[in-house]
Design goal:
Strand content of chain A: over 45%
Number of helices of chain A: 0
Number of helices of chain B: 0
Oligomer: heterodimer
Order of helices and strands of chain B: EEEEEEEEEEE
Shape of chain A: globular
Radius of gyration of chain A: 13 Å
Chain lengths: 111, 112
């Protein structure tokens, strides 16, 4: 079953903060976060692994509650460039690498 | 990192025909994935393509409709067969690295 994200959409003013949530019905090995701008491929933001390890490219923070199979992405001091659709991608088996993507959250940052 | 190219970037096809999408990676990779993204929707995994073995399909996708080839470690093709308008989507290939997946730019398919 597809992971569910909330909210579906959010509009922010520059500098404001947002939280995007991802919830799965399955036990998870890892959660990935991606951002996709219109007409472009998804771009990796962060991975959170079972056991607490995290790796990411940008100054974005996230959390992973393994027991609840939930993850949250925290966007602080938003910039116009943060606009796009955010997807969580879940991995249920160690080393499987195949991701099941969430329903998506459309984020719009306005001046 | 990985640089991925796809051909064609877009196509408009007639109902009942087939289209083969190519995915080329700039390095050798064991796994490649094919995803479908319907308009305004999330990405759905179609299949995993490993070199030297048959592709593994996810629920709802079958080999007769989406045959996949993986002739070497840098290349894969996905064919969308006997197309209908419901197949209109963006098709993306991706490859995993140590902790992230890189996606190709996608092939935008419109079926009339």
């Amino acid at each position: 079953q597809q992971p569910v994200q909330s909210p579906q959409a959010v509009i922010l003013r520059e500098g404001e903060d947002a939280v995007i949530n991802c919830s799965s019905s399955k036990a998870l090995y890892s959660v990935h976060w991606y951002r996709q701008k219109h007409g472009e491929a998804p771009v990796f933001l962060m991975i959170l692994l079972k056991g607490g390890e995290q790796k990411g490219h940008e100054k974005i923070s996230a959390s992973f509650n393994e027991k609840k199979q939930q993850s949250s992405l925290y966007l602080t001091a938003s910039q116009l460039s943060y606009s796009g659709t955010y997807f969580c991608g879940t991995e249920t088996q160690t080393g499987a690498n195949n991701l099941f993507f969430g329903t998506g959250t459309r984020l719009t940052v306005i001046p | 990192s990985a640089v991925i190219s796809q051909k064609p970037s877009r196509d408009i096809c007639q109902r009942g025909t087939s289209l083969t999408i190519q995915c080329q990676v700039d390095s050798q990779v064991t796994m490649m994935f094919w995803y479908r993204q319907q308009p305004g929707q999330s990405l759905t995994l179609i299949a995993t393509a490993n070199q030297g073995s048959e592709a593994t399909y996810e629920s709802g996708f079958v080999i007769d409709k989406f045959p996949i080839s993986r002739p070497n470690l840098t290349f894969s093709t996905l064919t969308v067969s006997n197309m209908s308008p419901e197949d209109s989507s963006i098709y993306l290939c991706s490859v995993p690295t140590s902790f992230e997946q890189f996606f190709g730019p996608g092939t935008r398919l419109t079926v009339l």
